[in-house]
Amino acid sequence: MEQSTVIFGIRSIIEAIESGSSLNKVYLQKGLRGDLYFELDKLLKKNKISTSVVPTEKLDRLSKHNNHQGAVAKISPISFYELENLLEETLEKKELPLFLLLDQVSDVRNFGAIIRTAECTGVDGIIIQKSGSAPVNAETIKTSAGAAFKIPICKVDHIKDAVFQMQAHNIKLISATEKTEESLYNIDLKQPLAIVMGSEHKGVTNSIQKLSDYKAKLPLLGTIDSLNVSVACGVFLYETVRQRNS
User: Fold this and answer.
1) Threshold 0.85, pTM exceeds
2) Domains of the chain listed by start with CATH number
3) Taking CA atoms, which of 103, 149, 205, 207 is between 20 and 30 Å from 132?
4) Of 242, 118, 229, which is closest to residue 185 (Cα–Cα)?
């Protein structure tokens, strides 16, 4: 599997950000100073790009050079879609669109598995948050069995932004959560829909749950109180498929 493109040098990374390239992560050497670094730092914060301070030795390994100027970045191997454009294009073609919002799912294997299932169930697009979400990297793509190249993925500053845009287009939001008495199997999924899946540790955040039109849980008949997020997502998606094809 081809790895994410690596670029190095402060100026190169600044130019990549300004040109609209999607950076998975930027690795920085501790103690960087100077006008050019502060320009980079400002752009990283403005665009909510994930960063990590690492030893020089790691920068040498990542860049395979020692003239990286203390900064190395990985560019995502896919292009991301603009959410509003995706919504408009999808709604022109389909009466019952299906979207998937991931509220800071951070494990790349879970993310890849979700992408694969989403592609298999006809999801029209996946929306993730710029910060706190798993990157679309080589491992994600491998776990998705290449589905990451076949399904639109959008990045937004905040999941709330996506929620408001969805609701403006009369798309109903359903959050997967154990903090409800409503079963997924009692909800009508034959309507324009966006399913929200939460992070591995915290689930869907309370603020997103409050904005959702529905909250739903899956029956758990054993002693363990939760499912893996990618497994739960698969159940939600295939119940939607079942209802829409019955």
Assistant:
1) no
2) 5-75 (3.30.1330.30), 83-244 (3.40.1280.10)
3) 149
4) 242
